[in-house]
Amino acid sequence: MPEGKGTLYIVATPIGNLGDITRRAEEVLGEVDLVAAEDTRHSRKLLSALGISTEMISYREHNRQGAAIKIAARLEQGKDVALITDAGTPGISDPGHYLVGLCVNQSIPVVPVPGPSALTALLSASGMELTRFLFQGFLPPKKGSREEVLEQLAATGFPLVIYESPNRVLSALGAIAQIMGDRQIVLGREMTKLHEEFIRGTASEVAHHLEAGKIKGEVSILIEGAEPIKRTVDLLPAIKRLRAEGLSASRVASVLSQITGEERSVIYRMASEEK
Predict the structure, then answer these.
(1) What is the C-alpha to C-alpha distance for residues 24 and 11, in angstroms, rounded to an integer?
(2) Residue 249 is part of which domain span?
(3) What is the pLDDT of residues 151-165, one digit of tens each?
(4) Exposure winner among 19, 77, 173, 254, fewest CB in 10 A?
């Protein structure tokens, strides 16, 4: 390790159940000089439960540039720092990558301390074949941008993982059913907690289940991959003509789906291949 420089530890913390903290994570959090946390008030409760009183600094999306400079300065002085997020593994759909990148550029050692992750928890309990999968993370909050992303992912032939906030999950499930087809999904919420639940079914079935109660906390959703395209020969000339006229794949899918009754997601995948 570079002489005189401290080490940045990327420490995974429990996503719910405190018992999931690893012995190594606990040791590191108690031995470093500084803990960089997404929400210091939230993470102070974790450290207090572990009997740890290490100094803390806020590092989150809105202050990541200024905070990263301060943290890197401490590391340059030979101080060790642990980076944690509110729950799970830093750097997965959060601003952790920025600090890590800065440290890499400054030749500051970066050491992962792996552990809990909502992503792997969901995958392990899904029951889907997962030789390959695609991780999208959070969908854009705006409807148009969200639908655009889902359209781009509609042709993916292997399972897709997204994260979603409780106040947007129902609209996200509706968009999934409309744009990608009413595929089978597995939705995990309150994972590792007392009221842990895995809901399985089509996107519309899961949405109907969630409508019956209050949704708490972020959820993780695994969507089955697209079926291989079964080309409908009669559609190809129409698709080629409309694409040649300058219509987008999304618009072609909307028009022909209404006319033919074919699933929009199937037509969209076919139209996407016709440049």
Answers:
(1) 9
(2) 235-272
(3) 889 878 889 999 999
(4) 19
Q: Is residue 3 part of a domain?
A: no
Domain annotation covers residue 1: no
What are all long-range contacts of 54-62, with beta carbons under 8 Å and residues at least 24 apart?
54/29, 54/30, 54/82, 59/83, 59/95, 59/99, 60/95, 61/94, 61/95
Q: Buried (b) or exposed (e) across 34-59, using 16+ Cβ within 10 A? A: bbbbbeeeebbebbeebebebebebb
End-to-end CA distance of the chain: 51
d(CA 190, CA 83): 23
Q: CATH number of the domain that 15 lies in?
A: 3.40.1010.10
Number of domains in the chain: 3
pTM as predicted: 0.80
> Which CATH number goes with the domain that contains 146?
3.30.950.10
Q: 216-236, pLDDT tens digit by residue? A: 888 999 999 987 655 555 788
